[in-house]
Amino acid sequence: MSLFKPAAWDSTVEVFNFQSAKKNSQNSVEKTNKNIANEILKKKQKNKVKKTSIKNGRIEKRKQKKLQKQKLIPKGLQRPVKPINSDDEDSSSADSSAESDSDGGIGSKQKVIKSGRIEKNKLKRVEKLNKSKLTEVHNKNVAAVTAATNELKLITPANAQFSAYQEKLKSQLVGGRFRFINEQLYTMSSQKAVELFTADREAYTAYHEGFRHQSEQWPFNPLKRIIKTIKNLPKTFEIGDFGCGDAELAKSVPNKVYSIDLVSAKPDIIACDMAHTPLKKESLDVAVYCLSLMGTNLKDFMLEANRVLKVDGLLYIVEIQTRFDNVQDFIQRLRSCGFQLVRKDMLSKLFLFFQFKKVQSIGKVAIVKPFQLKPCLYRKR
Ligand code: SAH
Q1: pTM score > 0.85 for this model?
Q2: Which among 86, 101, 207, 264 could disulfide-bond with 181, CB atoms 3.0 to 4.6 Å apart, if both were Cys?
């Protein structure tokens, strides 16, 4: 077609076909319009895709920021999204919470799945970091426990104070029980005392524990004086220790000692009331009563001493000085039981020490008036 002839020129008649020109023109306009419309449509679709991905990107970014805030993943890292069909089962609880967070952003998830491998690597790094976070937390806990233990160690003095208080309380209770039993022993007859200790063996133990504690407070132990005296006597002398307690005397002298008490705390101790012992008549050289004249029936004790002692046999008595209302009266009473005073000493202002000698056997049926000493009541500590 010539350049100067339009498409609607009808060369057969060499005239301009207006109808055809109009049609051609319409076709070409339509074509152009179609092209333009197609173009616009394409562009629109492209833009739509672009917009969606930008939008998804923004959502993704926001979620990452949120997770970073929760310290589930460190800055600069993608959040841990588990790829679909991943057989990586050992994800931590932090991971699973992140995953549930991502449920809303399905588009972004798909995008992440597309770049599966990179994501997986990142996920591994996140897990590693989470693990190290867990280790850090664990270490912190260990440190806290250690600190608490040290703190406990530090408060040990307070505990010690508490146990010291408990000890004090315990010793007060023991002391109280001791004083109660002690008072009973001083205010009842020896027959009753036997009944008391037979019924309650514990009472005896409590009494002795208390007595030992009490004697530790004294500036001087009177039994030591007796031991010293006996050591100066012939070793062949046979001795009776009446109300022996722990039988300390028998341990301390080379002589044969018959240890007697209400209860047998040791195998060598003869358990009986010293008013009636199994000892033979006039068998002993020495009879010892160290702080043991406790019952109200002193007459019975002294008549038994007279029975078991040889004539000229020695009688040693030590008692707390405050028990005596009238020492001379006591000496007189002993005289009526067949004993003569040899010497009397005051021991460290607290105790009275008597040495008597048996001058005659009077027999158990002798008419002797009953007598007793004041009870020795210990003060509350
Ligand atoms: N002589 C020891 C113990 C003194 S305590 C010392 O000096 O260490 C007094 C003791 O006398 C107690 O052991 C008590 O049981 C004992 N006693 C008191 N009355 C007694 C009795 N009737 N018969 C035997 N022992 C008695």
Answers
A1: no
A2: 207
